[in-house]
Design a protein that fits this description.
Blueprint: H1 3-8, H2 14-28, E1 36-42, H3 50-69, E2 74-80, H4 96-100, H5 120-135, E3 140-143, H6 144-149, H7 154-162, H8 164-172, H9 177-180, E4 186-188, E5 203-205, E6 210-214, E7 220-224, E8 230-232, H10 234-245, E9 249-253, H11 260-269, E10 276-280, E11 283-284, H12 301-307, H13 310-318, E12 325-326, H14 332-346, H15 351-356, H16 358-362, H17 376-386, H18 391-401, H19 411-431, H20 439-453, H21 461-474, H22 481-492, H23 500-507, H24 509-520, H25 523-526, H26 529-532
Parallel strand pairs: 1-2, 1-9, 2-3, 9-10, 11-12
Antiparallel strand pairs: 4-8, 5-6, 6-7
Helix pairs in contact: 2-3, 3-13, 7-10, 8-11, 10-11, 13-14, 17-18, 17-19, 20-21, 20-24, 21-23
Length: 533
Amino acid sequence: MDETRAAALEAKAWPFEEARRLLARCEANPPAKGHVLFETGYGPSGLPHIGTFGEVARTTMVRRAFEAISDIPTRLICFSDDMDGMRKVPDNVPNPEMLREHLQRPLTAVPDPFGEYESFGAHNNAMLRRFLDTFGFEYEFISATDFYKSGRFDAILLRAAERYDAIMEVMLASLREERQQTYSCFLPISPKTGRVLYVPLKEVNAANGTITFDDEDGEETTLPVTGGQVKLQWKPDFGARWAALDVDFEMFGKDHATNAPIYDRICEILGGRAPQHMIYELFLDEKGQKISKSKGNGLSIDEWLAYASPESLALFMYGKPRTAKRLHFDVIPKAMDEHDAHLRAWEAQETAARLENPAWHIHAGHPPASDMAAAYSMLLNLASVANAEDKTALWGFIRKYAPEASAETNPGLDAAAAHAVRYYQDFVKPAKRFRAPDAREATALAELRDRLRAWDGPADAEAIQNEIYAIGKAHGFEPLRAWFAAIYETLLGAGQGPRFGGFVALYGLRETADLIDSALAGNLVAAEPAAQS
């Protein structure tokens, strides 16, 4: 056994914990298909959000951890339930009136409101696949519409007809009495209107593989359960899909937790073995509400990538999956800096420590070296004091601080500079509020300015930080964070900021001294739009 595998079998990182559980399952009952199948499900009722991406990212992390401890081949399927009827019009799409005409039709039968694809379902599927492909996930995509219509689901659907009573017994026990009267696990698709119908069935004929019901106009209609003319309700569909594909692992959100036993039991009724589950907590928006595809609250994938790297998003997904987390713009800078810190730590770590490092899981065991000569948070504050309009302004300072750095040799830094400027323009600049220093703060700032102007030697970030500490203590700031708060509020117009010694080293000794002079003269406060109005 090699060193990595031995360490992986003991690693405490959650993907390895899940992988070891899955390995134990496979050792007890080796998969007859010859591989371990991971699955993620996606409901394309609205534009994909980051939670959708997170499910694929986290599943991939478990998959890679499993591959580190086992030689059994693996596959990952991303399954889109695009045959589901469109129950409501999402709030964040164009042409809502047009969409209302197609309510309850399968998503792949609803026209694309963006006018780009053959259907709304195809549009949302394409958006998801585009990002998954950009990030480099290895997966196989399955459309429920194709799965039903191609006949790949026929055997399970016929078995569901044969075992209809057993499935209904499970489902009816979970429903209110009123819903029990009309419920069926089969949903016919009207041959006349194309809508997915939630209607009671008059007959389920297992021998013929058909169902009989009254169509919307009241006419009695019989359809085969095969060939995409009928679909399963979403709870039975979960379990039936597991049985049809022989899924070994699937994670899902906490909102599915109470239904998991139902999914499992239906899978077993249909002759399958329920997969191993992992239940994760849900993402919340800035108000603490669950993010929703139809509401469009929270962040979209594209919004995150406008301000940060895909790897920072993967890091956000890695951290504490069983804890609810706010998914808002203000988490982005921390994610960027933490990802870089993990890359830097990697170089000096032994094998066991590397397996606990999130960088192993984000980069499938092969993280690159960091090329960030300056932290993202530092770039943000640099953009703020320089009032930068593009990354070129930042590079002027970066080259003085790190002469060996360039856009060509440091592509990660170059991308981060562009992201930081965009983040500054959209979030920091509108919120900047300078205040004038009080008498004690003004005296301390003047001393800091004088020491910076008299600085002899290289602009060492740690040495400058020590000087700033000494000045704060000499002027009686207790606690010292009050001194740093004064620096941030008077010089940067923000309530918090970077390690200031590093900022001075990057921005420049003379430039920082000039900035202090501007604050002491009242120029920064006077320059605010609110002060000018």
